[in-house]
Amino acid sequence: MFVSENLSVNEKGHLAAGGIDTVSLAEQYGTPLYVMDENLIRNNVRRFKSSIDKYYGGQGLVCYASKAFCCKEMCRIMKDEGIGLDVVSIGELYTAVKAGCDCEKMCFHGNNKTDEELSYALECGVGHIIVDNISELIRLEEIAGEKNITAKIMFRIKPGIDAHTHDFVKTGQIDSKFGFALETGEAFEAVKQAVSCKNVILRGLHCHIGSQIFDIAPFEEAAKVMLGFIAKIKNELDYEIKELNLGGGFGIKYLNEHDPVPFETYMEKVSQVVKSSCAEYGITQPFILIEPGRSIAAPAGITLYKVGARKEIPNIRTYISIDGGMGDNPRYALYKSEYEAVVADKAGEERTEKVTIAGKCCESGDLIGENMPLQHAESGDIIAVCATGAYNYSMSSNYNRIPKPAVVFIKDGQSRVVVKRETLDDIIRNDI
Ligand SMILES: *Cc1c(COP(=O)(O)O)cnc(C)c1O
After folding, report:
1. What pLDDT band is residue 173 in, cutting at 50, 70 and 90?
2. How confident is residue 78, by pLDDT bands cut at 50, 70 and 90?
3. Stretch 185-195: mean pLDDT, rounded?
4. pLDDT in tens, 387-424
5. Of all protein residues, whose CA lies closest to atom 10 belonging to ligand 1?
């Protein structure tokens, strides 16, 4: 009935998340409110972990891509589950360090890391600095030398795979700001240079071919291409690449018509490709890393809003205005991303209308969606937007000086605040 497995209708006809009445959550904590189901987050992590155990003999590590949803409590949960983290800025790294995460299990990404970021990553002992370009390699060699620390790196490779996803998130092809191209020989030259570096040790290679991908074929293809490159490095440079990071990008269900591949199936299919390619090339099977972000966080989250105005424009559309919008969820404005919405206090009723859900920012494009099937919504109703656990809070802004919502985690019938609602004083905190 709903896109996420933890959602249901309770005896009051209200939407329940993880068995908890969402209308009560809205009353208790106020709106807008991000709600994340900790049990579902943990289950999603365990599905990825167990798929590596089952299909690849446990020879791999899941690194949660924290940019999907990052706060100290989320990092603590990943630590508790024994997995690593993918971070893309000093801010995400700092959050993870403060949450007590093990930096050896981290991947530090970014196409333009600053010297400050590289220094901090070295001091923290980040296990995999994913080097994106030659100037970064040169700077890292120098900074690591000054600090007398060996930098443990991987190279970000563009394997040239078109993942048939939204153009904005397609990153595996040549025209991308991320990584070294294979076809042009750029990646091979970089490997040669790294092998001769004194303060850098090349542990592995990385690729990430896009996001919200529903096909398995591009993942299989990418793995094949990467293993071919590992074989070339072994044959021509006599250097063994021990680790292969295959990135994230696994698709999830935002709408009922979406039909994502079960997470386990990715690892099953990709493991087969890795094993058969290694046998074919005569190379040792690498340790595998994967970096799911959206697929761990998105299905676990919903956002609760209160309806303000209802504006019916005859023969055109009906606007339902809510007390949040692009500040807490910019994804429709950015990508025209679609969501399922429910009137939480009428969740048992039919969706009889198609409406536009509008935010409160001074932008006509500040919408959560258009043509959204919804129960009849009026002022005072609570609207839940589903599967907002990824790239909502983490992409939120204070546009129009609107304070960011709180984040509440629910678990086993209990709820707790893990990120406090911003106050008006938070809004002017850095103003002189
Ligand atoms: C964004 C990103 C991920 C996670 O992507 P999802 O689509 O959220 O799974 C993983 N690795 C890298 C390098 C990324 O940039």
Report:
1. low
2. very high
3. 97
4. 999 999 999 999 999 999 999 999 999 999 999 999 99
5. 248
Q: Is 165 in the pocket of ligand 1 (CB under 6 A)?
A: no
pTM of the model: 0.96
Atom of ligand 1 nearest to the CA of 249: 7
**pLDDT higher than 60, residue 168:** no
Confidence tier at 183 by pLDDT (50, 70, 90): confident
**Through-space distance between the first and last CA atoms of the chain, rounded to whole angstroms:** 51
Q: Is the CB of 274 under 6 A from ligand 1?
A: no
Quick check: 171 pLDDT over 90? no
Residue 292 near ligand 1, beta carbon < 6 Å:
yes
Q: Which two tokens stand for residue 114?
A: 């600053």
Higher per-residue confidence, 209 vs 90 = 90
Ligand 1 mutation target, pool 208, 252, 266, 290, most atoms within 8 A of CB: 208
Q: Is 324 in the pocket of ligand 1 (CB under 6 A)?
A: no
pLDDT over 60 (residue 279): yes
And the tokens for 173? 């092809």
| The two three-digit tokens of residue 153, written as one number | 């790196």
Cα–Cα distance between 25 and 29 in angstroms, integer? 6
